[in-house]
Automatic annotation (TrEMBL):
Lineage: superkingdom: Bacteria
PANTHER family registered for this protein in UniProt: PEROXIDE-RESPONSIVE REPRESSOR PERR, ZINC UPTAKE REGULATION PROTEIN
Gene this protein is translated from: perR
Gene Ontology molecular function, alphabetical: DNA-binding transcription factor activity; transcription cis-regulatory region binding; zinc ion binding
Cofactor requirement: Zn(2+)
Function: Manganese-dependent repressor that controls a regulon of oxidative stress resistance and iron-storage proteins. May act as a hydrogen peroxide and organic hydroperoxide sensor.
Localization (cell): Cytoplasm
Classification lineage: Bacteria, Bacillati, Bacillota, Bacilli, Bacillales
GO biological process per UniProt: negative regulation of DNA-templated transcription; regulation of secondary metabolite biosynthetic process
Protein name (record): Peroxide-responsive transcriptional repressor PerR
Coiled coil location: none
Length: 145
């Protein structure tokens, strides 16, 4: 298991959150999943191990992780919320055909935030950059048709 999960769990403990086996599993799954799963995806993946777990349990835990600043909710594309445990500076490339989201690392856009603040007087608290396109798999399918 990655040290990232351990670190995250230590962080949670300091906020007074009890680490249940379910929470541990949800966080581990999220940190290892590269596909920004929905709550349903997480539920389906973990249900065999935790038969008593409901989708509501998954949602409630995700909400708690979000409040702790450890998970981000991504709402775009197909209208179902996806969750991302990677809160470092990165952006998303979204396939317009199948809705797949991939991470794309790029230096933080502090100059953009700075300019926006100067021009509008806003105090900028964050930004979300989305790039749209067609993923390799969907592109290949088009060529083959």
């Amino acid at each position: 298991m990655g040290s990232g999960v351990q670190h995250a769990l230590e962080q949670l403990k300091t906020t007074g959150v009890r680490i249940t086996p379910q929470r541990h599993a949800i966080l581990t799954y999220l940190m290892e999943a590269m596909n920004h799963p929905t709550a349903d995806d997480i539920y389906r993946a973990l249900e065999p191990k935790f038969p008593s777990m409901s989708v509501a349990t998954v949602y409630n835990n995700l909400k708690m992780f979000m409040e702790a600043g450890m998970v981000r909710e991504l709402t775009y594309g197909d209208n179902s919320s996806r969750f991302d445990a990677n809160v470092s500076d990165h952006y998303h490339v979204i396939c317009q055909t199948c809705g797949k989201i991939e991470d794309f690392s790029y230096p933080p856009l502090h100059d953009v935030e700075h300019r926006a603040a100067e021009e509008t007087g806003f105090r900028i608290t964050g930004l979300r950059m989305e790039l749209y396109g067609v993923c390799e798999e969907c592109n290949d399918k088009k060529i083959q048709q």
